[in-house]
Design goal:
This protein has 454 residues and is an all-alpha fold. 53% of the residues are buried. The N terminus is likely disordered. Bound molecules: phenylalanine (PHE). Phenylalanine binds next to helix 1, helix 2, helix 11 and helix 15. The site of phenylalanine (PHE) has 14 residues, from helix 1, helix 2, helix 11 and helix 15.
Length: 454
Amino acid sequence: MEDKKSRGNFSGKIGFILASATSAVGLGNLWRFPYLAAEYGGGTFLFVYIIIAVSFGFALMVTEVAMGRKTGKSATAAFKELDKRFAWVGVLAFIIPAIIVPYYGVIGGWVTKYCGVYIVGQDKAAAGDGFFGAFSGSTWEPIICMLIFDAITAVVVILGVQKGIEKAAVILMPVLIALCIIVAIYACAQPGALDGVLYYFKPDFKRLSGKTVLAALGQLFYSMSLAMGIMITYGSYMKKEDNLESSVRWIDFFDTLVAFLAGLIIVPSFFVYSGGNPDKMNAGVGLMFITLPKVFATMKAGRIIGAMFFILTFFAALTSAISLMETMVSVFIDIFKMSRLKASIISFIYIFAMGIPSTLGFGIWSDVKIFGMDILSFFDFISNSVLMPICAFFTAILAGFILKPETIIAETEECGNKFHSKKYYSFLIRWVCPVGIVAILISSVLSGLGIFTL
Ligand code: PHE
């Protein structure tokens, strides 16, 4: 990815959409979205998320892709080139993936474990109540699973065979979507699931708070790989003649669809298993691993479907982890002039070592709480709810007031393409994004302190 010659190598618009979608669709959609939706009021969260996706998500993704394509550079260099005063935002865009990727490996390890569970036929045991807690709370097993996941990611990055994996992922993504649809239909047809489906769809505005909106915003950034420079890098590989606006719409659509379906499987099922009590909907980061085996256990071909589901999730997680790690590696190569091998090994050691505290936070270090959060949740919070909104805010200021929306619009209209939502875009990037982000941050801090609730 680091040499200039290989830029612009997506084979057309479809190639760009698929490559970006395979980076975007990952644990954010399958693991993170459902547990947040369950916790933050089901339909309330879904409603807020969709509104944020078509506004913030659309505007920021157009901006980032356009910044990348205009400069032909990845995040750190792109910010510097566009405006020197914003160079530090590029550095922030490097720090964010560096915080995320170690704990991404922890969850990737859990997925690896569950692939194994279904392959060797422990599926019934996995549906038992204490199974996930015993596994995630043990010391060595989660570390070894994480090591396997991180090592596979590193080998792909070292060999530079992302293209091959992406090709496989392109075939696997429609399979994943189809499987999600089948399992969702099954889960929703279970006795008692209807109330859970209602919980997932029906917004309850009494549950709306600054915290909910901030959680949805952080989830949007995480899921769509925004506010951390990734889409800038992807944009730098996009051809000028490809239609940027419609590509962005497709990526946003795919990403939201997978998250929506994952939620539709997990949230109603969890609602049933927790006795239909909305106050008990906060199983946290383990939700997917606790609920899904229970769903599969009631299915006829549960073991095979479960195995397929976790293997597909594994690939979705792997492609995302690869693109996260590649960001680190290319910065090391560019700035410190390292070889790909050395940069990858250093990144791997860092990712693995930094993942260990997050893993242990579910076991022998479970007493360690930072602002009341376990270690993994703390890293997740700092990156998604603090640093990414800051990065997004300054990206919006740069695009809306320094470069001006016209510059971004001109980039989207290269080679005779038309940007249909120009006015909508300009309004969003200048006003809605910056003002919205500040308002969401302030109201969630205040509601966190108990001073004010929306
Ligand atoms: N968007 C990915 C997901 O939903 C996570 C990710 C973030 C991947 C940034 C690459 C870069 O899992």
